[in-house]
Write a structure and sequence with these properties.
single chain; 408 residues; alpha+beta; Immunoglobulin-like; 3 domains; 4-stranded antiparallel sheet; 12 helices; binds iron/sulfur cluster
């Protein structure tokens, strides 16, 4: 049995492994190069190297919508392709099987534990500064909170890698259950196709089911756990080659009489033409959603300004007549670097407004309050509209707030 599987040339697996390893490398590097990371201590989010604050939640929301849409569209078209080609759990499902053979169950479990502890450290780095933690470990310190987090998650990952394995994908993972809801008859699936002139071509050898690490028999309709890895296709190719017949097991789109096989790896252009109509809508929507996300990211405000109206009124002597007021001007630096911000008051007659200070230096995410006194030098009854403006010297970031001062 083992030798039978050993003869299968796993061609598709090579491409898949390259994709899985590239994604794994990205996931490991991401928090250390601030590609994507929540920084819980500062309550901010790093995205593509820029820091976003709570005020920028709309950017994150738009990006999340884009990612969810891409995953759902890919699943609707190609099944659990995300599991087989992207998810690290499935990569380790396969690797641990070969580690069992090479190092025995105990050696495989120990290797899984080491990788799991590293994985838990990477997960922790998604929420805080991983390099700083590493420096503390190197200095002989072991902070309790992060260490418990890493040990807890490390144990969980070890269980997932060494014991639960494909049960995580089959039973626990919500995406797997979601897939069985969103797939339809047009979703890509595996099918034995009886080609014209080659009826009943399947040798019923069972090699395709034997090689499947997810325990699926690809000749049946029950394929909700299939992760589109392609191993069974390569197995079937071996059998068909030996029998000098075309390979019959294939990924198909459509169902019944309308089923069309994505047959030959060599005929890329035919496959593209076959898939193109199904790809137009998802690609168009992905471009629109992705473009909107990029636009929102590029045009997000970098400084915010709020003026608390009539923070304190200055009453004229002898009656309830407001002759002046004191307002609190709050400035918050929403950029990802420190900057000096200049404050201006526009729209009031000369000498009516006095800012406690006209410039202020703020670190990223820092907020400060400046007092603004509006004191008319002459009694001009009416509503006086004016604008408080702030401009960042380095970033050019700008914000303004319109308000009024009323003279009775
Ligand atoms: S049925 Fe085939 S493609 Fe699907 S998981 Fe099993 S081996 Fe991979
Ligand atoms: S490997 Fe191909 S020929 Fe053998 S049982 Fe599966 S589909 Fe049939």
């Amino acid at each position: 049995m083992k030798s039978r599987l050993g003869k299968v040339k796993t061609v598709i697996r090579r491409y898949r492994r390259a994709a899985q390893l590239a994604v794994l490398a990205l996931l490991i590097l991401s928090p250390f190069v601030n590609l994507f990371r929540f920084d819980v201590p500062s309550m901010s989010l790093y995205l593509f190297g820029t820091r976003l604050w709570v005020k920028h939640t709309f950017v994150f929301f738009m990006l999340l919508v884009t990612v969810i849409y891409v995953i759902i569209a890919a699943s609707l078209l190609f099944g659990r392709v995300f599991c087989g080609w992207v998810c690290p759990q499935n990569l380790f499902n396969e690797l641990t099987r070969s580690w069992d053979r090479r190092f025995g169950r105990i050696g495989s479990t120990l290797l899984s534990a080491v990788i799991s502890l590293f994985g838990a450290f990477v997960v922790w780095s998604y929420f805080s500064d991983g390099r700083a933690l590493l420096a503390r470990y190197a200095a002989g310190q072991a902070p309790l909170g992060p260490s418990l987090f890493i040990l807890g998650f490390g144990l969980f990952f070890t269980m997932a890698m060494a014991w639960w394995r494909t049960n995580v994908c089959r039973i626990v993972c919500p995406y797997g259950h979601l897939q069985s809801i969103i797939s339809n008859a047009e979703t890509m699936h595996l099918q034995v196709i009886n080609l014209p002139g080659h009826r009943d071509i399947c040798a019923t050898c069972g090699l395709c089911a034997e090689i499947c690490h997810m325990g699926v028999d690809p000749r049946t309709a029950e394929q909700k756990h299939c992760v589109v890895c392609g191993d069974c296709l390569d197995a079937c190719a071996l059998v068909s080659q030996a029998r000098k017949v075309p390979r019959v097991l294939n990924f198909t789109i459509g169902s019944g009489e309308r089923a069309v096989a994505l047959r030959d790896r060599g005929r890329l252009w035919q496959n593209v033409r076959l898939l193109a109509p199904r790809l137009v809508l998802p690609l168009t929507l992905t471009l629109i959603l992705g473009g909107l996300s990029a636009y929102m990211l590029a045009t997000r405000p970098l400084v915010d300004l709020v003026v608390a109206k009539n923070h304190r009124q200055v009453l004229a002597a002898g009656g309830p007549v407001s002759s002046g007021s004191v307002m609190a001007v709050s400035v918050i630096n929403l950029g990802d670097r420190g900057d000096t911000f200049r404050l201006y008051v526009e729209g009031l007659p000369e000498n009516w407004a006095a800012l406690e200070r006209s410039d202020i230096h703020l670190a990223p995410g820092e907020r400060a309050s400046v007092t603004l006194r509006v004191h008319p030098t002459e009694r001009v009854v009416g509503t006086h509209r004016f604008t408080v403006r702030v401009v960042g010297e380095g970033s050019g970031a700008e914000a303004s707030f319109d308000t009024v001062h009323v003279v009775y």
